[in-house]
Amino acid sequence: MYDYLAGTVIERSLSRLVVEVGGVGFELAVPLGAEFTEGAATRVFTHLVVREDAWRLFGFEDRAGRDLFRLLLSVRGVGPAMALGLLSGMARADLLAAIRGQKSAPLTNVKGVGRKTAEQILLDLRDKPVLPGEGDAAPGTSATGSGTAATSSHGETEDAVLALVSVGYKEKEARRQVEHAADSVGTDDLEALVRHALKK
Question: Which of 46, 58, 74, 174 is the most exposed place for a label (fewest CB within 10 A)?
Answer without folding.
Answer: 74
